[in-house]
Amino acid sequence: MTKLMAASSFAAPCANAAAQPGGFLSHLGAADLRQLMALGERVPYTSQDVLFTQGAPAGKCFSVVEGVVGIYRTECDNRRQIISFALPGDVLEIATQGHHEVSAAAIGPAVVWEIPREKFAQFASHRPYVLNEIVALMATEIADAHDKMFSLGRRAAEEKLIVFLTYWRDRLVRLGRDVDPLPVPMSRRDIADHLGLTVETVCRTLAKLERRGTIEILPGRIRLLDTESVAAPALA
User: Fold this and answer.
1) Containing H/E element for 195?
2) 185 cis-preceded (ω within 30 degrees of 0)
3) Of the candidates 92, 85, 194, 97, which has an alpha carbon nearest to the alpha carbon of residue 137?
4) Staple 111 to which of 65, 149, 172, 216, CB 3.0 to 4.6 Å?
């Protein structure tokens, strides 16, 4: 498979979620869920495997079952902007133009449920509540994206990192994960490409925050110690 290059990593990935569908799939009745699951398949990916690429034909729908998947766009000069990190239950993309407008790659080992678009469209066409759930999901994702963009805004590197870590913590809490210390499966390059910073700035700022006693960096995790003093002005 095509690989997504990454810089040095914080290490181990987040603990896998239970291998049950989440997101809008969790709202399906038992019979509908069994039927839909039979139409698709669970596909395992290793770290940095690319699921699909920007501009390629969109023949399938994807939803994360286990692990974390990065959603990103690549500019003409090959610079990468990571838009979001998808967690179990998240739909990776709803392609409306017949091609992928973003790319997706596994951040550590992941399992993704995949179904041909035609099969999913046929399934949903007979179940209006499924389409309603998708619309609600899209509305929630747009609202979350707006909130995150506003929170990051024109922030200093310290504020951006704290906002990112607290936002990531809150997402994991909603999944019932242990967040003390906080699992951080992304590489420093991933975080830099998500926040619009350089890798050097991310490394330097994390070290500065640790020296100050704001965070504690552990293998594969970060313990948030005193983020309020930094996060308060960032979230104001």
Assistant:
1) helix 188-195
2) no
3) 92
4) 65
Q: Which residues pair with 44 in a beta bridge?
A: 111
pLDDT tens, residue by residue, 59-108: 999 999 999 999 999 988 888 999 999 999 888 887 767 899 999 999 99
Instruction: Supply the pTM of this predicted model.
Output: 0.81
CA-angle at 46, arms to 41 and 52, nearest 5°: 60
CA-based R_g, the chain, Å: 18
- Residues 28-61: tens digit of each pLDDT: 788 888 888 899 999 999 999 999 999 999 999 9
Considering only CA atoms, which of 57, 115, 100, 106 is closest in space to residue 85?
Answer: 106
The token duo for 167 is 């936002």
- Domain that residue 189 falls in: 154-235
| Residue 41 and residue 93 in one domain | yes
Domain count, the chain: 2
Reduce the secondary structure of 16-80 to three states and give it as a string: CCCCCCCHHHHHCCHHHHHHHHHHCEEEEECCCEEEECCCCECCEEEEEEEEEEEEEEECCCCCE
User: What's the rounded Cα separation, in Å, for the pair 54 and 164?
Assistant: 25
> Which tokens belong to 183?
């699992």
SS3 187: strand
Tell me if 215 is assigned to some domain. Answer: yes
Positive/negative CA dihedral, 198, 199, 203, 206: positive
Question: Are the C-beta atoms of 109 and 187 separated by less than 8 Å?
Answer: no
Same domain, 136 and 204: no
In a domain, 4, yes or no: no
Nearest to residue 149, comparing CAs of 192, 194, 188, 187? 194
